[in-house]
Structures are given as structure tokens and as C-alpha cells.
From TrEMBL:
Compartment(s) of residence: Membrane
Classification via Pfam families: GUB_WAK_bind (PF13947)
Protein name: Wall-associated receptor kinase galacturonan-binding domain-containing protein
UniProt xrefs under InterPro entries: WAK_GUB (IPR025287)
Originating species: Vigna angularis var. angularis
Length: 208
């Protein structure tokens, strides 16, 4: 009897554990894996994402929503869509918010797999470790990708956003650079047709 009681208690404990690990239901066609959470009743609420009109979105510290393009739960990673560059300008849509800022109190950061392309920069950017040469891949983008046409012939640069740089923001502003885009997993010499546009974010595993 005692053994049975223990057994029941143990299995109840297990049931509780499993239910706290419940993942959220799909958002449109999108599977929302644990620990991502679209509402209070599922996932882990520190890992909040938003299901707006059946589109899964990530909210930045400045209140901008970025569309989630893909999620790799086994690697604790997700990729958000870089903000569009507004037509006939060289302004990223989040320019007035200063670019992308992640809330540092949340368990997300920008991974080290991102190559950032910056456009319409001023000369003072040249002091930082960026590649602003005429061979920079930003030149291909502004010449061959329609969204970059508004940035043509501006000073542009690219850099690999590795751990040496701040992992919670991609900054743009008037008087520095006013537009950006980003590639995930870019390696030098990858042809433009194979570029993978996105900003890869990584999350701290909930068990840590
Ligand atoms: C480039 O940035 C400057 C401010 O730094 C702005 O006045 C100008 O309009 C921008 N150029 C384009 C093409 O958007
Ligand atoms: C700048 O980037 C281009 C394209 O990846 C590369 O060929 C070139 O060597 C880089 N230049 C510098 C100074 O890093
Ligand atoms: C981002 O977060 C992950 C998981 O916590 C950590 O392993 C990684 O070192 C962080 N990356 C940077 C660039 O801070």
C-alpha cells in the first residue's frame, strides 16, 4: 500500500512536470516549440513571442515587432526578419527606434552567426572594425537587390557580429548609419543568390 502511494505520488509529480513543459499550440502554420510562449498558459513566460494575425513575432525592447522566419529548438535559436529598408530611402523601418535592441533582462541575445550590412554611414564609422572597402558585400546588395537601391553610392560597410561586439543590439541612427540588413551563416565568397537574410537570435536554455 505504501509502495503504491509512493508510486502514485511520483507519477503525479511527473504529470505536473510534463504539463509545465507544455508547448503552445501552432500560430497559423507555425509550430511554437517549448520554451517559447505565446500566452500565459503555455511555454515558459520568460520566452515570450507573439502570435499576431497568425504570424509569429518577436518584440524588441523598443516595442518593435519582428517577424519570426524560422526556429531551431534543438539549437535554442530563432531567426527574425531584418526590418525592411523603406522604399526610395536608405532608412530601415526601425531607424527611429535606433535599430534592433533586445531587452537585456530576457534570455535572448544576437548569435555570432550574423553578418551585418550597414548603409548610408558617415565617416566617423570608419574608426570601428568594419569592412567598408569597395569589395564589401554591401556594394553587391545596393546594386543588385531592389530594397538596397535607395542606399546606392552611400558609404556602406559589413562586419561579422561576433562576441566582440555588443550582442543585444544592432544600432542605426541619423549621423551614423541609417539602414541595415543582415545575413545568417554567411561565409566570404557566398554568391548573392544564396544569401540567407535574417537575424539569428539565441536563447539561454530554461534549465540553466
Ligand atoms: C543618409 O543619412 C543622412 C543623415 O545621416 C540623411 O540626411 C540622408 O537623407 C540619408 N540618405 C538617404 C538616401 O536616405
Ligand atoms: C572586405 O570584404 C570582402 C568581401 O568579403 C573581402 O574580399 C575583403 O578581403 C575584405 N577586406 C578587408 C580589408 O577586410
Ligand atoms: C548568447 O547567449 C548564449 C546562451 O546563453 C551564450 O552561450 C552566448 O555566449 C551568448 N553570446 C554572446 C555573443 O554573448
Amino acid at each position: 500500500m505504501r509502495v503504491l502511494q509512493l508510486f502514485l505520488l511520483t507519477s503525479l509529480g511527473l504529470v505536473t512536470n510534463v504539463s509545465t513543459l507544455n508547448s503552445c499550440s501552432n500560430c497559423g502554420e507555425f509550430i511554437v516549440p517549448y520554451p517559447l510562449s505565446t500566452n500565459e498558459n503555455c511555454g515558459d513566460k520568460r520566452y515570450k513571442v507573439y502570435c499576431n494575425d497568425e504570424k509569429l513575432e518577436f518584440l524588441s525592447a523598443t516595442g518593435t515587432y519582428y517577424k519570426i522566419l524560422s526556429i531551431d529548438p534543438s539549437a535554442n535559436k530563432l531567426v527574425i526578419m531584418p526590418p525592411p529598408i523603406l522604399k526610395n530611402t536608405c532608412y530601415s523601418s526601425d531607424l527611429l527606434m535606433g535599430g534592433l535592441f533586445l531587452d537585456q533582462s530576457l534570455p535572448f541575445n544576437i548569435s555570432t552567426q550574423n553578418t551585418v550590412l550597414l548603409f548610408n554611414c558617415t565617416n566617423n564609422i570608419l574608426q570601428s572594425p568594419l569592412n567598408c572597402t569597395s569589395n564589401s558585400i554591401c556594394r553587391q546588395y545596393e546594386k543588385k537587390v531592389e530594397e538596397g537601391f535607395g542606399c546606392m553610392n552611400t558609404l556602406c560597410c559589413h562586419y561579422l557580429k561576433d562576441s566582440a561586439m555588443n550582442s543585444h543590439k544592432i544600432r542605426v541612427r541619423i549621423g551614423s548609419c541609417t539602414a541595415y540588413t543582415c545575413l545568417v551563416g554567411f561565409t566570404p565568397d557566398d554568391p548573392l543568390q544564396t544569401w540567407n537574410y535574417g537575424i539569428e537570435l539565441q536563447w539561454l536554455s530554461p534549465n540553466n
